[in-house]
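retry 2 of 3: previous attempt timed out while embedding arginine. Reduced batch size to 1 and resubmitted. Inputs unchanged:
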Amino acid sequence: MARSRLRRAGAASVTAVLLAAGPATVADAAPGDGIGDPYFPTYGNTGYDVEHYDLRLNYQPDTDRLSGTATLVTEATEDLDKFSLDFLLDVTSIRVNGKKSAFESDGGHKVIVTPGAPVDSGDQMTVVVKYSDVPSSVEWNQGQVTGWHRSDDGAIALGEPEVAWWWFPSNDHPLDKATFDVRISVPEDYKAVSNGILTSQFTRAGRTVYSWRQDEPAATYLATLAVGKYEVNTGTTAAGLPVYNAYDPGLDSLLGPAKASIERSEEILEFQERDFGPYPFNALGGIVAGPDTGLGYALETQTRPVYSHAFFAAGSNPYVVAHELAHQWWGNHVSVARWQDIWLNEGFASYAEWMLSEHEGEGTAQEIADYVYDSYPEDDPFWKVKPGDPGADSVFHSAVYDRGALAVHALRLEVGEEAFGDILTTWQQVHANGNATVEEFVELAEKVSGQDLTELFDTWLYTEGRPAEPPAPRAMPQTMAAPA
Ligand code: ARG
Ligand code: ZN
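retry 2 succeeded.
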């Protein structure tokens, strides 16, 4: 299919990037070594490429037991006598191309699999993993990070980069994007929400089965599962996309502000299409978590971001919606090749908030840029983090967001409105459903604008310390600046 060819073409250029950057080459890697991400070297795996995840799951909210079968439709990219999966839950059995296969945990987040029959490079490899566990009981990193968030009566799978490990076995790195079918059975008084289109829903013997289909490639951290007694609002956009919004019943007085924000998704999306190009996916929606999950952030899970209740504590908030919807282009349609490329996600999603503010008449991007620059004093440690290479501990540091957005604003001022618009839309076309690096962005921005942008990006992305001035519009000739 054209789509998978496109995707593989993207993956190939990215492998080249990692080969150039990584300490161990992909060819030398042993199972469990990871795909070669400089910040998170154990994340993801080599030797195969996942095309599709099929998850058939059963969830019991009262006990938090998740069980089911994950089928990974993959292609071997090497001769394999062993390979690894990223997963923390208890595995019952694994079959590879139909054959019972031995497996063992590496003691961390890897399951090492020995296929029952050898697999050759280029072969289709179907991996069937049966599992049953209580995700909330599974600790990683002394329990400091979890991708499984229980509520009083359900749970949400959410996290970045770590989340898939708590609910499905995967090749857990954005480099290996795949399509998803998530079929999930829950007690009939519950809703189960995932990504993409709800293709069927039926109730039998006290349980409701939801079938969700994400048929545009997605990075593993962008898949979510939310089970709760949600209030659901569905519809269809003017463009014909199915909309599915879910609100936690515990939102109480925040339900109004949450709806007043999420229900504006279609409008905000239409505004963003003018700058970023056509919305890349075929479904739309949002999930608003209740206070009982303890979630304090939002995350751009594909087609259906999850929002913490906290964003609506002071009333409606179209900006968080703009941020998460902008990620559908910046992060989801074009994904990071390495986690150090996170500016491509957070810098642009943050700038999308400034663009919406300008559009809403609530402050221009320039006013926000000046305000943000001034709000961090010169000696603030904020200026020590370089958005273009923040370090593994700081991928979600406020500098990646705020200084990252200042960098985008500086680019816009430097190249002008027309070239800026061309850069944004060309980027989305060139890397559609693929992966890319910050270096590739700089290269494309220079090519499209015809300008040397080395100094600009050095200043805003790669240099410690506060730049001497906030990004400022070039002085206009007197004749243009004079009021009419
Ligand atoms: N991509 C998310 C956002 O839009 C970041 C969430 C990071 N937080 C976390 N705890 N992993 O802001
Ligand atoms: Zn973000």
